[in-house]
Write a structure and sequence with these properties.
By secondary structure, this protein is an alpha/beta fold. The chain is built from seven helices and five strands. It is about 45% helix and about 20% strand. The relative contact order is 0.15.
């Protein structure tokens, strides 16, 4: 899939930086992907999924990401509907050409912890084991991610 194949809405999502790749690897040498759901730069779930497939397609070309896997970091900005988007995209993981080794769900509000706990019940055991939740102030979240070797 080429960038020109995307719908105008999907192109806007990609250009807004909704999905990003960290310039540095985590402590285990894996590619780190950031999902900034709090940006709210999509109009329909269909355009978001299209942009996500494009993003994953670009990452999948990287042989290192295919062999070592990737780490995902999602931040919804305290908006429950944005975490629901992360859950929807998580369903697509089985079609990836690479393995998602870990997922970090970051929230600044304690109320969102309940939604993250519900998500952990919804996923399979293998995925649940690899999900970490981080909540608190922005600085606390950054520190928690850094303890996993993720530069923020």
């Amino acid at each position: 899939m080429k960038f020109t194949d995307l719908s105008p809405d999907a192109r806007e999502i990609v250009e807004a930086g909704y999905f990003q790749v960290s310039p540095s690897k985590d402590a285990a040498g894996r590619t780190v992907l950031f999902f900034a759901a709090a940006l709210n730069k999509y109009r329909t779930m269909e355009s978001l999924k299209q942009a996500f497939w494009y993003f994953i397609g670009c990452i999948s070309r990287n042989e290192e990401a295919q062999t070592t896997g990737v780490v995902g970091v999602a931040y919804s900005g305290g908006k429950p509907e944005k975490m629901a988007v992360a859950f929807e995209l998580q369903k697509m993981k089985y079609a990836f050409a690479m393995d998602i080794q870990a997922a970090h769900l970051c929230e600044t509000t304690m109320a969102m912890r309940f939604l993250v706990a519900a998500q952990k019940l919804y996923v399979d055991n293998f995925t649940r084991f690899r999900m970490q939740e981080h909540s608190g102030t922005r600085e606390e979240i950054h520190f928690a991610l850094q303890t996993y070797g993720i530069n923020t």
